[in-house]
Amino acid sequence: MTDHLASTERSWLLAIDSSSEQASVALFDGARVAEVTWLAGRDQTATLLGEVDRLLSLLHVGAAGVSAVAVAVGPGMFNGLRVGMSVAKGFVLGLDVPLIGISTLDVAAHPFADLELPVLAVVAAGRGRLVWAEYRPDQGGLRQSVPPRNGTIDELAAHARGLGACLVTGELSPDQEKVVRALPGVHIPPPSGRLRRASALAELAWDRFRHGDLDDAVELEPVYVHAARQSR
Questions:
Q1: Average pLDDT for residues 105-122, to the nearest whole number?
Q2: What is the dihedral of CA 77, 80, 86, 91, to 10 degrees?
Q3: What pLDDT is stored for residue 1 in this prediction?
Q4: What percent of the chain has pLDDT over 70?
Q5: What was the pLDDT predicted at 225?
Q6: pLDDT band of 226, cuts 50, 70, 90
C-alpha cells in the first residue's frame, strides 16, 4: 500500500539548524517529521544546502510543499549561523513563505520540557568555552529564567551546583561531561539524548506558525557567540 507522505499538497515546515559544528534539518507537518542530522564541522557552506535538497528529495517534496521555514538563530558560531540564515532566507524569499527564528538554546532545552526540573541548555562556544541558559518548567513548556551566559565549564558547574537538582543538556566535550556528572543532584542525558535536533526546532516553530507569530525576513539576524550576553 502506498503511503502518500510525499504528497506535495501537504504543508511542510522546513527547519534548519547550523548553529555549531553539529547541523540538522527537518521537515514537519504538525504530526510527522523527517530529519537529517550530521557532524558538519566547519563545512556548513559545502554541506547544508545539499542536505536540505536530499531531505526534500527523500520525501518527494517540491517547492509547493513548503509552507514555512524555521531557522535556529543562535547563539552559535559565526560561519554556521551565517550559512543557515542565508539558506533559510533564500527559501523564504524565493517561495514567498513565512520565516520563524528560534533560539538555539531553546531548541536544546525543548525535549526536556516535561521533566519538571530546571534545565541548563548548552552550546559549544569554541576554545573550551560554553554558552548556556537556564530554563524553568512553565505551563507545560519551558521558560528561560536566566539569560544566556558565556563562560567556562567551571562557571557552568557552579551555576548547576547552585540549582541543586537540575538537568544539563547540549554540547559538552568528554572532559566537560565528567565535570558535570560529578555534581550531586545534576542529571545529564547520554550523548544521543543531548543531540540538538531540527525536529525540536520544527515543533517550536510550528506552534508560532499556527498562531501567526512570524519574523521579518529582512530584519531577522543571527546571535553570535560574542553577543551571547545580549542574546534574545
A1: 96
A2: -130
A3: 34
A4: 93
A5: 79
A6: low
Per-residue model confidence (pLDDT) at position 41: 86
Q: What is the pLDDT of residues 115-139, one digit of tens each?
A: 999 999 999 988 889 999 999 999 8
Q: How is the beta sheet containing 141-151 ordered, strand by strand?
A: 141-151, 129-138, 119-126, 166-170, 186-187
Q: Domain 4-103+196-230 classified CATH 3.30.450.80? A: no
Other beta carbons within 10 Å of 135: 26
Which residues have a Cβ under 8 Å from the Cβ of 139 and sit 6 or more positions away? none
The topology under which CATH files domain 105-194 is Nucleotidyltransferase; domain 5 (3.30.420)
- Per-residue pLDDT band at 231 (split at 50, 70, 90): very low
pTM for the model: 0.91
Whether 124 and 20 have beta carbons less than 8 Å apart is answered as: yes
Burial call 40-65: b when 16+ CB within 10 Å, e when fewer:
beeebeebbbebbeebbeebebeeeb
All CATH 3.30.420.40 domain ranges in the chain, comma separated: 4-103+196-230, 105-194
| Cis? peptide before 111, omega within 30° of 0 | no
And the C-alpha cell for 183? Answer: 555534581
Angle at 187 between CA 186 and CA 189, to 5 degrees: 150
CB 100, CB 66: distance < 8 Å: no
Q: Which residues contact 34 (CB under 8 A, 6 or more apart)?
A: 26, 27, 55, 58, 59
Rg of the Cα atoms in the chain: 17
